[in-house]
Amino acid sequence: MSDWNDKIIEEFRANGGQVGGQFAGAPLLLLHTVGARSGQTRVSPVMYQKVDGGYAVFGSKGGAPTNPDWYHNLLAHPRVQAEIGTDLVELVARVAEGDERERIWSEQKDAYPGFAEYERKTSRQIPVVVLEPAS
Q1: pLDDT (average), residues 61-88
Q2: Is residue 6 helix, strand or coil?
Q3: N or C, which end of the chain has less CB nearby within 10 Å?
Q4: What span, in angstroms and rounded, lies between the C-alpha atoms of 18 and 5?
């Protein structure tokens, strides 16, 4: 997985935030988190959805039975950075719940049906995380 992510990160940075392949045309950002146990900076390419006041990202992990590592990292350290296009922005992460989560998640599945497939593949609730500007 690391090599796959590294190639996407490299392509993203070389092309001002644009990538090809399965993510061509999709809104993609590079999420910088601090490792929950290691304390080291980690970078993960993730699809996002613009929401009021920020961005939503989704802990789908392709429908795997466990949440992605970046999700655990931001629970431990909610102050994050994201590369969006050529900008690096400071954000604070919070987990969306209830009606907010359902609204954002439904929009994501409608726009990108692969997310509905990820949901079918797993018994866990896929986390929806809202990233808002840090103050």
Answers
A1: 97
A2: helix
A3: C
A4: 14
Phi, psi angle pair for 99, to nearest 5°: -60, -40
Q: Which residue has the tokens 């497939």?
A: 117
Answer for the pair 100, 68: CB distance below 8 angstroms, yes or no. no
Q: Residue range 37-64: average pLDDT? A: 96
| Long-range contacts, stretch 42-46, CB < 8 angstroms, 24+ apart | 42/69, 42/70, 42/73, 43/5, 43/9, 44/5, 44/68, 44/69, 44/70, 45/5, 45/8, 45/9, 45/12, 45/19, 46/70
Nearest residue to 93 via CA among 85, 81, 104, 103: 81
Q: What is the pTM of this model?
A: 0.94
- Give the up-direction half-sphere exposure of residue 77: CA atoms within 13 A in the CB hemisphere: 18
Q: Does the pLDDT of residue 1 top 60, yes or no?
A: no
For residue 22, the model assigns a pLDDT of: 85
pLDDT band at 71 (very low <50, low <70, confident <90, very high): very high
**pLDDT average, residue stretch 72-84:** 97
| 34 within 8 A of 40, measured Cβ to Cβ | yes
